[in-house]
User: Fold this.
Amino acid sequence: MPFSVVHDWHADSVASLLTEASAQRGGAAEPHLAVRSLHARALAGERIAESVRSAALEPALREVYRYAYAYEEAFATASAATSSFALSRGYGESEAAEHGESYARAHADANALANAAAVGAAFATADPPAYAMTYPFAYVRACIREYGGQDEARGRDARARPAEGLADSLARAIAR
Assistant:
């Protein structure tokens, strides 16, 4: 499959799904639109630097992961555990709370940072094996979870749209 299909799919189907999911939760569309723009530019033949891709992907991935997974629960658990540890080591109440918040924020955003770098590198080089190593299906599953949430009907729509979009992207590649 040509890498242009991946760019087409992300620019068309994935970005639309994420922009809608963000809007339904009161989030910002801009991070997803920025990623969409990069995919559209790459599809048109423009080479985009890894650093530019990673910088655009990071805020978009952060939002996807925040909504797709139990982010608030994980954040609260990490913060409380780290704060308790700091208190047991002689930190004051406010220092321990600050330490817990700082650790939890870094921990919660680590996946977005790591994946933005890996995916940015794969997209910049249009390297299928490198892209495969970023576990794109896990990303798609996170997108589906973000869009569908707990709503059964939205969940069905969320599962169908990426597949239908990929088929459309393949059809457009064949037609070119």
